[in-house]
Amino acid sequence: MRTDTPLTIYRKDYTPPGFWVETVEMGFDLDPEATHVATRMTLKRNPASQNKSLLLYGEALRLVQLRMNGKALTKRAYTLGPGTLEINNPPDHVTLEIETVTHPNLNTSLMGLYVSDGNFFTQCEAEGFRKITYFPDRPDVMAKYKVMLRADKEKYPVLLSNGNLIEEGDLGDGRHYAVWEDPFKKPSYLFALVAGKLVCQEEKYTLHSGREVLLQVWVEEGNLDKTQHAMDSLKRSIRWDEERFGLELDLDRFMIVAVGDFNMGAMENKGLNIFNTKYVLANPRIATDTDYANIESVVGHEYFHNWTGNRVTCRDWFQLSLKEGLTVFRDQEFSADMIGTDSARAVKRIEDVRVLRQAQFPEDAGPMAHPVRPDSYVEINNFYTVTVYEKGAEVVRMYQTLFGRDGFRKGMDLYFQRHDGCAVECDDFRRAMADANGRDLSQFELWYCQSGTPHLKVDTHYDEVAKTYAITLTQSCPATPGQAQKQPYHIPVAVGLLDGSGRDLPLHLGGVEIDGPAPTTMVLELTQQRQSFEFRNVPVHPVPSILRGFSAPVVLEIDYSDAELAFLMAHDSDPFNRWEAGQRLAMRRLLALADAVQKDHALSDSELQETALGKAYHKILSDRMLDPAFCELALTLPSETVVAEQVDVVDPHAIHAVRQFMRRSLAAAMRVEWEVAYQANRTPGSYSPDAAAAGKRALKNLALSYLMELDEPQMHLLAQGQYDQANNMTDRIAALSALVNSSAAGRDEALARFYAEFEQEALVIDKWFALQAMARTTDVAKVRDLMAHTAFTLKNPNRARSLIFSFCNGNPAQFHAVDGSGYEFWADQVIALNAINPQVAARLARSLDRWRKYAPALQEKMQAALKRVAATKSLSKDVLEVVTKSLAN
Fold first, then answer.
1. pLDDT per residue as tens digits for the range 497-517
2. Among residues 5, 120, 117, 126, which one has the least CA distance to residue 59?
3. Helix (H, G, I), strand (E, B) or coil at 445
4. Same structural domain, 476 and 493
5. How large is the average pLDDT for residues 40-45?
């Protein structure tokens, strides 16, 4: 906790470690009240460092003994400060023995060694290992680890750590032991141990090389029937990485362990991945289609880290996107490849871009804006952000857009050839891509070091006589905290041209020779502030399709008419841009209605069916040849968060009102079509989470949600019937959500029945809380009532997120109550969470970081809430950094 102004860490101040650690041996006597940890490490001086002393980090530890080269050190030989242990003038070669005591049962931060439901778990990224023992806890210090775990055999029959099990046995006093050895060097943040009463599903798996490995998924008793999908996802991940990138599992076994108390989604500890139960446990009774897809994605993500993060890791935490952005890209490609079909791949791409726009674009425009490779931080946990992850993935994707799959693979191969077993920088990855493809990517570094979302303006001109079509691209980037001026980015812009019938025209770019048939999509490389590109032999005035596949993370500014957007929505061969055209049409309508509300004008839907939007929606819903999953995305209006980003001053109540008005209007105007779509997309028979079935359920449940906007008894019965007859959680939770957001008489009874049926399923009860938190009628008083429920606890991050985060981030109209009660509630919860789990508290603190974008009356109340949190005594540096930056910028 904070006792004074926390130190800001700067990337420019990086210095090499004074000592390298060669080997680490650790012995744990596991006890929830007081775990004794004995550590012996061998170190050698780093000749590249100017540091003469040996600096170790430690937090919340009791130092019992410290020995160097066999001799106990007196207090004169070292300095024990807040969070550090510094040994003065050590020799060049050191064997250091340290005994520490930690208290896992008191560790509510869930960093380091902690207890969950009577079992031991660890989380060491980013700086949790220092809560276990004193150590040079930084990612560029890599060593080989050998670990012995000792514990009561009855209470903790399973003892796991990184690497391979080399020995186990009884100690003769009711305790037993296990020895694990990791044959690969790793940084301390990848250390892990698990001990407790667990059961596992295991399978032998044969790699492409013919080597057999053991795969295990460990869970608490009673959850073994929910592990098959995670196991199948792991096997698919292993096979995909072999086939796509030639990367093979390097250990004899690979383990996944699920825990209910976890700050993150999962953690890639070498060979022992620890997961939030949310991303492991699934069966049709408790998991939705989205849960199944997320489990596959997260299992893939953590497995892919075995190479992009573990075998090659980060020099320092400023390089976090080196592993996270790259691995998010890899898991996105994996999920798309597992789906297979082009239309389903497009759905995955659209979903990824929606996340970027709803979360990362606002971050880029707010006080916490930072580059993909940050220049400074106060608390590194605050930089596990959508900028580092999702925007970082978009930066990696641009390499593939520029060089193609084969060129990207060449860059990856060179990257591993150069850096396997090393801790490196983002620039090393960029250089590997450049060298492998013979390109100068020096300008591309700006994607790593400049914050903010670039804006791309498009102007066009058609010369009917010369049959040429010119596209002029102009880029700019708004000022962000600490960066007023921006240099031009290297932006790949994928374009196509459509003729009057909606067919793609062959592209002939001036100055570019093409072998073979002319392409219908071409990537233009914008490297200047303004550039023009001229296409020749264009027989008719085309409609341009710009930024196909969302080829760069930018805001596209182009003056399409409503007719052109409707045309693209109906005909564009690029599914992403087809979806994008519909979103632009809907956004125009929403913004016009919001403006009308703010001017006290009456809203009218009488002309909706005659508008370009109404006709386009009708065409999409009536087209039986379209993929249902694509239709569901195309017919979903932009979220209130995305709409808010399009206005200078946010009125959350007006935005909510017009979006609901639009939904009711579309429901009434296309009632028959929605009813037909509902019936046509039923999925009778046994449940399957495959993409085709999931897509049909998505469109069916969207149709149900629209029909429920009519709020008629007939539709209430339809939703109630679906709830009663559902054989899977996807349909059940969709029906319950529809009922909760209606005036149906049976909504409270349905909520009670749902809770009674799933009371013992923690992940389902999380859904129950979240659904109510985001309901239109749920105000602050209702959320406080739900917090008093016996099933609620602030100490479990999943439960806190399901109710508090869902309300503050997913129910803007109620959270931004005009009386400021939502902000008072937010401050209460940030302060309460700060005392329990600073990392979770800091995440919640981000809910108000865009306060300056709101109307003055709301701004004043938000600012007061932020100041109240900032004035709290013993505020963690996690929360302090967020509120300080929010108030300052």
1. 999 999 999 999 998 988 899
2. 126
3. helix
4. yes
5. 98
Does 237 reside within a domain? Answer: no
pLDDT digits (tens, 9 = 90+) for 583-634: 999 999 999 999 999 999 888 766 677 788 899 999 999 998 899 999 999 9
**For residue 144, what are the β-bridge partners?**
23
Nearest Cα residue to 262 out of 786, 795, 832:
795
600 within some domain:
no
Q: Which of 802, 878, 888 has its CA nearest to residue 846?
A: 878
Domain at 193, CATH number: 2.60.40.1730
Judgement on whether residues 489 and 630 belong to the same structural domain of the protein: no
- The DSSP H or E segment spanning 697 is helix 691-708
**782 exposed, middle or buried (CB, 10 Å; 0-12, 13-18, 19+)?**
middle
> Are 475 and 418 found together in one domain?
no
Alpha helices in 50-149 (DSSP H): none
Q: What is the CATH number of the domain that holds 487?
A: 2.60.40.1840
Asked if residue 415 and residue 381 are part of one domain, the reply reads yes
Let me know: does 154 contact 175? Beta carbons within 8 Å: no
Last residue of a domain, one of 155, 173, 197: 197
Same domain, 22 and 167: yes
The pLDDT of residue 444 is 98
pLDDT higher than 50, residue 222: yes
Report, as an integer, the average pLDDT of 39-56.
96
Closest by CA position to 292, among listed 694, 692, 563, 841: 694
- 584-603 per-residue burial string, b: 16 or more CB within 10 A, e: under 16: bbbbbbbbebbebbeeeeee
Handedness of CA 49, 51, 53, 57 (dihedral sign): negative
Residue where a domain terminates, one of 449, 479, 507: 449
Cα–Cα dist 480/164, whole Å: 47
CA atoms in the 13 A half-sphere facing the CB of 889: 23
Count of structural domains within the chain = 4
Strands 253-259 and 212-219: parallel
SS3 per-residue string spanning 6-33: CCCEEHHHCCCCCEEEEEEEEEEECCCC
Tokens (6 digits) for 16: 């090499």
335 backbone dihedrals φ, ψ, rounded to 5°: -60, -40
Q: State whether residue 886 is helix, strand or coil.
A: helix
Would you say residue 863 lies in a domain? yes
**Tokens at 364, concatenated:** 């880029």
Q: Poorest-confidence range of 28-32, 512-516, 521-525, 571-575?
A: 512-516
> Per the residue annotation, which of 97, 302, 640, 881 is the catalytic one?
302
CATH number of the domain bearing residue 816: 1.25.50.10
- Is the confidence at residue 284, as pLDDT, over 60? yes
433 and 367 assigned to the same domain: yes
Contact 163, 302 (CB under 8 A): no
| Host domain of residue 64 | 9-197
CA torsion sign, 250 to 251 to 254 to 260?
Answer: negative
Residue 340 lies in a domain: yes
Clarify whether residues 497 and 530 are in a common domain: yes
pLDDT grade for 654, boundaries at 50, 70 and 90: very high
Q: Is 757 a catalytic residue?
A: no
Gap between the Cα atoms of 883 and 889, Å rounded: 10
Single out the residue of 213, 178, 215, 169 nearest to residue 196, CA to CA: 178
Q: List 804's β-bridge partners, or say none.
A: none
User: How many alpha carbons fall within 13 Å on the CB side of residue 652?
Assistant: 22
pLDDT of the residue at 76: 94
The three-point CA angle 717-721-726 to 5° equals: 155
| Phi then psi dihedrals of residue 43, to 5 deg | -135, 155
Tens digit of pLDDT for each residue in 287-302?
999 999 999 999 999 9
Q: Are residues 389 and 318 in the same domain?
A: yes
pLDDT at position 4: 61
Cβ atoms within 10 Å, residue 437 = 18
Question: What does the alpha-carbon distance between residue 227 and residue 223 come to, in Å, rounded to a whole number?
Answer: 7
